[in-house]
Amino acid sequence: MAQKDVLIIGAGPVGLTMANQLARYGVDFEIIDQKAGCSLYSKALGVHARTLEMFDMMGMVDKFLDRGLKGTGLEINFSDGLRLEVDVSHIDGQTSYPYLLILPQSETEKILEENLKEKFKHQVKWSHELMEIRQTSDGVEAVVNDSDGTENVLTAKYLIACDGAHSRVRHLLNTPFEGSTESVQVMLGDVKIDPPLESKNFSVFASPKGVIALAPFKEDYTRVIAIDFAKQDRGKDVKVSMDDLQDSIANIRSEEIKISDPFWLSQFTASHRQVPQYRYQNIFYAGDAAHIHNPLGGQGMNLGIQDAVNLSWKLAMALKRNVLSGLLDTYYEERHPIAASVLRRTDFLLKMMTLKNKRLFRLRNFVAGKVTSIGKVQEKLAENVSQLVHNYKDNKQSLEVNKASDRANGLKSGARVADASFQTSGVPVNRMYRVLRDGKFVLLVRSKPGSIEADVVGLLDYQRKFEERFGEFVRPFIVTSNQLPLEQIPVGVEWIADDKGELADEYGLREGSLLLVRPDGYASFSCPEIDFVKLEELVLKYLCV
Question: Which of 432, 436, 447, 541 is nearest to 486 (CA)?
C-alpha cells in the first residue's frame, strides 16, 4: 500500500499539467493512466493565449512555441459568398502571445511528460488501470491494476480525476454529468489535402448542406471536420472511411479538395455536459472529466489545463501549511462558472453553424456580417477565443475582499494580471510572469518618497508572519519609480523599479499602495494604502482561514 498526498488519475494534458505543477510545489504525488503512453493522435489542436501565459509562468512556454505553428485566428466562409474572420491579433498589446498556437495534443502531452521527467525526475505510471475507489476519513483509497494485472492499493489525501470525457472516476462514484447530447454527428480525419491551404488559420465553410472545417497543423497534415446533414442518421458504431469524408467534402464545400494518406479517422456525437460539483470530499474533477462541449473554438483542452493550474497551488497550500478546506472549495467556485459559460457559447455556436432552413441561414449571415465588422466586436471575440476574458472578479470571495480592501484604482480581486515588465535587483529587464515562476504569491509594495525605510521594516515583519503561518509562499518586493533612491533599500530586500510605468498603468499600482498577486497570475487584491495590518486581515480572508 503506497501513501501519497495526491493521486492523479489520467495523464493527458490536464493530468500532466497537474503533475508538473504539484512537482513544482514539492507535493508528493502519483500519476497513473490506463494507456501505455502519451496519445499518438492530434486531438485538440489549439493552444490559446491564456494557456501560453500559464506555461510561461511554469517556465516552459518556449518548448511549446518551438514545436507549434502560429495562426492568426478563424475564417468562416458561407455558400452565399459571405466571409467572416475572428482575428486573434486584436489582443496584441494585451498579451505576449497574440495568436493561436497550432500544436497537436500529442505534442502537448510529450512536452509536459518530458518536462516532468527531465526537470522533476518523475515518471507517469502507464498501463495502470483504476478499478475501485473508496473515500475514507483520511482521504482516498484506490484499487489499481498494474501492467502485469497485479492489484495494488494506493492511498492519498486527495484524488484528482483528470481521466477525460469517459471518466472512470466519475463512473465509479456515480457522479452526475449533467447536460445533453446535441444530436450532431461529427466526422473528422487527419489527412493530407490537395490543394493545400494557403494560410495557417482555421478555415470553416458552411452551407445549407453542412459544415466543413479545415485546420492545418504539421508535416503537411490537415484536420478535416465534417458535419454532413445528409449523414446524421449514421449509427454511432459505423466507422468513418476516406470515401465517407471525401463524399461529404464534395457535397458541402464549393471548392474541390482531395484528401489522402489518413493518419486518424474518427466520429463522435457532440455533447455539452458538466458535473454539478468539482469537489466531492477529497476527490476533485478537472478537464473533460468535469466538463465537455463541442469542439468549436478549441476551448476544451485549454479550460482543463487552466483548471489544473487553479487547483494545484491551492492543494499545495492545503498540504504544505494546513490551510483550511475553504480555499479548496474556491476551485469549484472559480472554475465551474467559466466552464458553464463556455458550454453555453459553444452550444449556441453549433446551433447557429448547423442551421438547415435557408431563410434562417440567410438571416444569420446578414446579422453576422454586420456585427462582426465592428472593431470592438472583433476585439471581444478575440479575447473570448483566447480566454483572456476569463477571470474570478465575480466570485463571492473576490467580491468580499474587494469590499473589505477599499480598493481605489488598483486591480480588482480575481482580475487577470498582465505580464508587465520592469527592472529588478540583479535583473535589468524582468517581467511579472518570470517572477511568478517561483510558484509563490508576489507582494508589491510601492513606496512614497521618504517612506522606503518604514515600508521595508513593515514588509520584512509581514513576510516573517506570513512564512510562520504559510511557509515560503510569498515573494515580497519594494517597488519604486526611477526617481526614488534605491540605495535606501537594504541588501537582501528585493526591489522593483517601475522604469516604464507599466505597474502604475496596467495594475494601478500608485505610490503608497500595494498589490498581492496569486501564483496563477490573478490579483488576490490591491490596497490603496500600505497597511500591513489590513494586508494580514485580507490574506486570512482570501485564504479562507
Answer: 447
